Amino acid sequence: MTQVYNFSSGPAMLPVEVLRRAEQELTNWHGLGTSVMEISHRSKEFIAVAEAAEQDFRDLLKIPANYKVLFCHGGARAQFAAIPGNLLGDAKTADYIDGGYWAHSAIKEAEKFCSPNTIDIKATRDGKRALLPMREWQLNDDAAYVHFCPNETIDGIAIDEEPDFGDKIVVADLSSTILSRPIDVSRYGVIYAGAQKNIGPAGLTLVVVREDLLGKAQRYVPSILDYKVLAENESMFNTPPTFAWYLSGLVFKWLKEKGGVAEMDKLNQAKADLLYGVIDNSAFYRNDVASENRSRMNVPFQLADSSLDKVFLEESLKAGLHALKGHRVVGGMRASIYNAMPLEGVKTLTEFMVDFERRHG
Ligand code: PMP
Questions:
Q1: pLDDT, average across residues 120-148
Q2: 260-360 belongs to which homologous superfamily?
Q3: Exposure of 122 by Cβ count < 10 A (0-12 exposed, 13-18 middle, 19+ buried)?
Q4: Which of 66, 123, 144, 248 is the most buried (most CB within 10 A)?
Q5: 149 Cα nearest atom in ligand 1
Q6: Are strands 93-98 and 117-120 parallel, antiparallel or unpaired?
Q7: pTM of the predicted model over 0.90
Q8: What angle do CA 103, 104, 109 make, to 5 degrees?
Q9: Is pLDDT at 1 greater than 60 in this prediction?
């Protein structure tokens, strides 16, 4: 079998070194004669795994000491409900920035718990899809917090600015961008991310919450989504997704060995430049997002002649380039190029694209 590159948006490609390590120790983890999946989450062996993973994650994102890291269940969508439940307090509204599919989905969920103040930032610039810059966001004084999604996985559109809204509690859905670039955690009240894109296997969700925001959950919030309960129980109020936690820990170690988030930032820029460069240099391919809002993680592109989509997907699959089909609401193609995707994978994709154009253009 030749090398396969998996461009899936999530669950997504994992570093092959991490998978090999997991394979080696699968049936006899640390000499225990069992797998890490089969031991108690309260055993000293698993606690060591859990603590190391948290520490490495903290180091990678430079998380200040006054933030808790919670290892949760339920994916990012559970957080869509947990956020209002934990942060609304006595307020009746929260600001929700709408820049795409996932931000909009968060608003739909928030409507169950409050009257979200939706701030639509979708715009066009030079005929391309764009987002309004933060200085133009009209925030509301009554809002308990402002929620936004810096990288829209489906729309392939992103906000690279970091928030600077004074005392406002800023909440960000980082599901498809976490660890891809350095961020200043102190600017956020809560950040959260489903693990299955840029961290590890599905089933784990990371939440980073500033300590002063704990203890404000509404009565209706299920205990497993109450940040205070989770923090007090070191994310073990109920049984955590132990295998996903362990594997994510291996990914964090891998990231550190690769030079951490600063190195990933450079690599992700190089990968995105290469792919957008090929798209922009051709009339055969097209990306309709304004350059300053292009996602470096999820690159949607269309073929000028969409009747070739099917053969593009068939041929790319044969060439070992998997999961390039665009999301059903957008169509066309999408290449998700998270941290685990090597530059070589993007080179192979761009070479395939150039060759495909030569043969079919
Ligand atoms: N937010 C973003 C930005 C996402 O990309 C996704 C998943 N594609 C979600 C939320 C939903 O995540 P989950 O399936 O983990 O609930």
A1: 97
A2: Aspartate Aminotransferase, domain 1 (3.90.1150.10)
A3: middle
A4: 248
A5: 3
A6: parallel
A7: yes
A8: 100
A9: no
CA separation for the pair 321, 5 (Å, rounded): 5
Is there a catalytic annotation at residue 197? yes
Ligand 1 in contact with 176 (CB < 6 A)?
yes
Boundaries of every domain in the chain: 17-257, 260-360
Separation CA 163–CA 135 (nearest Å)? 9
For 60, other C-beta atoms within 10 Å of its C-beta total 19
Amino acid at 153: T
Catalytic residue flag (residue 102): yes
pLDDT value at position 2?
63
DSSP strand pairing (157-158 vs 151-152) = antiparallel
pLDDT at site 3: 79
Choice among 102, 226, 271, 325 that is catalytic:
102
